[in-house]
């Protein structure tokens, strides 16, 4: 990675190997066409979440979804979709073997049933997945986890910590060879757990969990566009995430969890979880690393650690950010509906160089 200034001056330009987004929701139909260009402009590869309705549960589904994404890619933009299967109570070892052999499926996603958007077909009881998980362990196909318990007796803010004790630790004991990505971690407990675990356990960290604490959800009133799952946590947790992401440990890497929903679905009596960040994803992470005084470590987090975990070479292309203020649009269009981005109407500090 190279900066454009010397000594104590502020870096004005930042060039890094083109990053990858190892956790993104691209949706389908009009929303896919609206959001894909934002991800494709920035990232060499995108690991695409399978929580469509119906879910991407088979290798054939993944193949069809991948074709739809490639079809929606703007001309002249190269971004490789990496597919994930949606784990259900009925996923068979044969399906796992097929996914592995396809070469297009890079992980299998565990959504506890009821944990989040389109998780109704998710796993009701992890023991039902033991045969599939054993095959994933044998075939070295990583498990990607939405790490929250759904037990209504557990406080929403404690669901990630409870998941570590109730699900993750027993899972690792039973399948010690299974590689696991603890997705979008939000707590200092998750950071400590991943740091202390074997090299087979890694985690993605979103830009929004690095930039905001839960106060942002209630600043002057209820802010539905700051609502996501796992929900934003206390400032101490945000600080632990920043230390992990900027600390140089290869277990932590970039996954935006950019999750677009139309404005009407967010501003509702029961609004959807999800924050749209793909429009400026790497620019947002640059702010985090700069505030931590670690712009020099952005490239490793964004472009190297994740690729290494997934056994992929780093992208050979490069991407340059320039220090330049701009105002985020109040909304983007998507098939006649509106999509409200993170920081709508507010300032950004980095811009992608054309
Ligand atoms: O905030 C979220 N939105 N968290 C998830 O786990 C799912 C995602 C979505 O698909 O909207
Ligand atoms: Zn997600």
Protein model, in words:
The protein is α/β, with parallel strands linked by helices and 354 residues long. The protein has a single domain, classed as Alpha-Beta Barrel (TIM Barrel). 33% of the residues lie in helices and 18% in strands. The chain has eleven helices and 14 strands. It has an eight-stranded parallel beta sheet with strand order 3-4-5-6-7-8-9-10. A four-stranded antiparallel beta sheet has the order 1-2-11-14, covered by helices on one side. Zinc ion binds next to loops.
CATH architecture label: Alpha-Beta Barrel
Please tell me how large the radius of gyration is: 19 Å
Q: How many domains would you count in the coordinates?
A: 1
Could you report the average pLDDT, rounded to the nearest whole number?
96
Decide which structural class fits the backbone.
alpha/beta
Strand order of the largest sheet: 3-4-5-6-7-8-9-10
Order of helices and strands: EEEHEHEHEHEHEHEHHEHHHEEEE
What is the helix tally?
Answer: 11
Our measurement of the CA-to-CA distance between the termini, rounded to an integer number of angstroms, reads: 18 Å
Q: Which residues form runs of ≥5 with pLDDT under 50?
A: none
Helical content stands at 25-40%
What fraction of residues sit in β-strands? 15-25%
Total number of strands: 14
Give me the CATH fold name. TIM Barrel
Largest sheet: 8 strands, parallel
Shape: globular
Provide a quick synopsis of the model.
The protein is 33% helix and 18% strand.
Keywords:
single chain; 11 helices; 4-stranded antiparallel beta sheet; 33% helix; binds zinc ion; TIM Barrel; alpha/beta; binds (4S)-2,6-dioxohexahydropyrimidine-4-carboxylic acid; 14 strands; 354 residues
């Amino acid at each position: 990675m190279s900066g454009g200034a010397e000594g104590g001056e502020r870096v004005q330009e930042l060039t890094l190997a083109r990053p990858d987004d190892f956790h993104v929701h691209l949706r389908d139909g009009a929303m896919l066409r609206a959001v894909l260009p934002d991800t494709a402009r920035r990232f060499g590869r995108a690991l695409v979440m399978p929580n469509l309705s119906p879910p991407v549960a088979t290798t054939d589904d993944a193949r069809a979804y991948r074709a739809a994404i490639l079809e929606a890619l703007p001309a002249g933009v190269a971004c490789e979709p990496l597919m994930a299967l949606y784990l259900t109570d009925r996923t068979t070892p044969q399906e796992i073997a097929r996914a592995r052999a396809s070469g297009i499926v890079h992980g299998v996603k565990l959504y506890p049933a009821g944990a989040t958007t389109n998780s109704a077909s998710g796993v009701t009881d992890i023991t039902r997945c033991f045969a599939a998980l054993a095959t994933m362990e044998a075939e070295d196909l990583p498990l990607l986890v939405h790490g929250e318990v759904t037990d209504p007796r557990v406080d929403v803010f404690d669901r990630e910590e409870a998941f570590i004790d109730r699900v993750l630790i027993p899972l690792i004991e039973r399948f010690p060879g299974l590689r696991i990505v603890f997705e979008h971690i939000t707590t200092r407990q998750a950071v400590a757990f991943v740091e202390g675990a074997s090299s087979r356990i890694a985690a993605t960290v979103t830009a929004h969990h690095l930039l905001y604490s839960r106060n942002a959800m209630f600043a002057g009133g209820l802010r539905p566009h700051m609502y996501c799952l796992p929900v934003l946590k206390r400032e101490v947790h945000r600080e632990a995430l920043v230390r992990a992401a900027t600390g140089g440990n290869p277990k932590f890497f970039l996954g935006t969890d950019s999750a677009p929903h139309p404005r009407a679905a967010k501003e509702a009596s029961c609004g959807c979880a999800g924050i749209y960040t793909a429009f400026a994803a790497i620019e947002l992470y640059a702010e985090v690393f700069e505030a931590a005084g670690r712009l020099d470590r952005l490239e490793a987090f964004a472009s190297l650690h994740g690729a290494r975990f997934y056994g992929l070479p780093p992208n050979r292309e490069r991407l340059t950010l320039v220090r330049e203020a701009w105002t985020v649009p109040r909304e983007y269009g998507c098939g006649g509906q509106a999509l409200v981005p993170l920081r709508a109407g507010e300032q950004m500090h980095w811009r992608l160089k054309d």
